[in-house]
Amino acid sequence: MYPVFQKFNTALFVLFLGVGSCESAEEKTSQQEMAANNVPSSAGKPDGMTLFRQHCVICHGSDGNLGLNGAKHLSESVLPLEERINIITNGKNLMTPFRSQLNPEEIQAVAAYTLTLKK
To answer: Is the CATH number of domain 48-116 1.10.760.10?
Structure first.
């Protein structure tokens, strides 16, 4: 490799190294503590859309209408929030229960998000 390119690559590496270390020690510690305690980085309620994308899209699809493995079309569902919470918690037919994967607040957030998919 040419010496000019070696110097350029070294300079780029040092630049990226410096940019990555701009966070203060307090910010890094706080982020590490939150990750270790499994606390969401944004304080407050769980994000139903994010949880839906993590756990539900594989069968329901991003718009709620994929229908894989008999998954119901959520845009057509007339179920009230309470029944959605029950189904997410306990499962139904081929749908897996999520009570061991999501806490009650997360289940409620997902159920509330599914209401937004209704057309």
So the answer is: yes
